[in-house]
């Protein structure tokens, strides 16, 4: 005879506790963990640490909401892997913009092996800033990772080498970038390959030893249909889903926040990539060779990495 788990307050509180613990592993800008959880009346509520504005979110609010979305996906996945069917209500209270989501446990549910395995990957996922020096990602793995990103109401535009070069050239010619934007320019130059940028611009001077930096990597832009809190929450859930599937496949994921922090960077992206929606993050995907070491500075003046 199969026993059925009772859904009482003690059981749900224990399940919510496990979900919140797992959510602490979610990627967020500079590792700030911009979320606050609250358990009350049998539900788990997610709040942004900083009060969002009622208008168009600013850069800090965008980054915080994306981080909260990643934490939300971690929590949802953990509850599903522990055998619970959950109803998730996003932006449950229009009068309280900081209240981003509410989770309610409806009852027990079967657990698929894929869900259980992906939840275990939460402990393995981490941000690795080392250059990509291993073998390129196979088309099959890239397809699986892309599907994971796009399962959360977003799109992932994989960039061609010429598009990366166009972005690097455009940012090098931009004279209205803020300090973090210049850091983005340097990063794009490294992505495209120092030698190619020097040849294209004749005035960008980079160390020749970095010419092979990330040449085996795949670069993409995470984007979506809008720029409001719900869209950014979905972007964070997509970041969680995509990075966890990538970690399952031993693929490193490094996200870069210039499209969020720099309005000029967003304009450059839209000009360089046709049919791009609202850009949220740039993403670097790839394999690390065992002997690779990071020689690139990650100073705090750079646009945020979702760590």
Provide structural commentary:
- The structure is a single chain.
- With 307 residues, the chain is α+β, with helices and mostly antiparallel strands.
- The protein has 10 helices and 8 strands.
- The protein is globular and about 60 Å long.
- The strands form 2 sheets. Strands 1-2-4-3 form a 4-stranded antiparallel sheet. Strands 5-6-8-7 form a 4-stranded antiparallel sheet, sandwiched between helices.
- The termini are far apart.
- The protein has helices at residues 9-23, 59-81, 113-120, 139-150, 161-173, 179-192, 194-201, 229-248, 258-261, 263-272, and strands at residues 35-40, 43-48, 84-90, 99-108, 155-158, 218-224, 252-256, 278-286.
What layout of secondary structure does this protein have?
Layout: H1 9-23, E1 35-40, E2 43-48, H2 59-81, E3 84-90, E4 99-108, H3 113-120, H4 139-150, E5 155-158, H5 161-173, H6 179-192, H7 194-201, E6 218-224, H8 229-248, E7 252-256, H9 258-261, H10 263-272, E8 278-286
Short descriptors:
18% strand, 10 helices, 307 residues, globular, 8 strands, alpha+beta
- Number of discrete helical segments: 10
Shape: globular
What structural class is derived from the secondary structure elements? alpha+beta
Tell me the distance between the termini. 46 Å
SSE sequence, one letter per element: HEEHEEHHEHHHEHEHHE
Mind telling me the C-alpha Rg?
20 Å
Mean pLDDT: 82
**Strand tally, please?**
8
Beta-strand percent range: 15-25%
Strand count, sense and barrel status of the largest sheet are: 4 strands, antiparallel
Q: How much helix, percentage-wise, in residues?
A: 40-55%
- Outline the low-pLDDT stretches: 194-212, 292-301
Order of strands in the sheet with most strands: 1-2-4-3
């Amino acid at each position: 005879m199969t026993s059925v788990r009772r859904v009482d307050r003690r059981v749900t509180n224990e399940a919510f506790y496990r979900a919140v613990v797992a959510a602490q592993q979610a990627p967020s800008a500079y590792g700030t963990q911009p979320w606050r959880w609250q358990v009350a009346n049998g539900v788990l509520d997610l709040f942004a640490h900083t009060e969002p504005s009622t208008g168009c979110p600013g850069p800090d609010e965008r980054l915080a909401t994306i981080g909260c979305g990643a934490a939300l996906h971690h929590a949802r996945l953990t509850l599903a892997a522990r055998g619970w069917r959950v109803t998730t209500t996003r932006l449950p209270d229009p009068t309280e913009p900081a209240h981003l989501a509410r989770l309610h446990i409806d009852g027990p549910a079967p657990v698929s092996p894929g869900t259980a395995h992906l939840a275990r990957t939460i402990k393995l996922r981490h941000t690795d800033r080392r250059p990509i020096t291993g073998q390129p990602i196979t088309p099959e793995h890239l397809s699986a990772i892309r599907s994971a990103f796009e399962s959360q109401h977003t799109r992932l535009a994989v960039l061609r080498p010429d598009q990366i070069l166009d972005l690097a050239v455009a940012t090098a010619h931009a004279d209205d970038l803020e300090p973090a934007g210049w850091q983005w320019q340097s990063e794009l130059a490294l992505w495209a390959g120092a030698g190619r940028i020097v040849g294209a611009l004749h005035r960008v001077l980079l160390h020749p030893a970095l010419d092979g930096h990330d040449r085996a990597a795949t670069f993409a832009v995470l984007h979506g249909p809008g720029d409001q809190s719900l869209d950014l929450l979905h972007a964070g859930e997509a970041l969680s889903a995509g990075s966890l599937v990538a970690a399952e496949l031993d693929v490193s994921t490094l996200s870069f926040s210039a499209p969020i922090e720099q309005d000029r960077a967003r304009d450059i992206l839209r000009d360089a990539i046709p049919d791009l929606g609202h850009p949220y993050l740039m993403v670097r995907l790839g394999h690390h060779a065992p002997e690779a070491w990071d020689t690139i500075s990650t100073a705090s003046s750079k646009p945020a990495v979702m760590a």
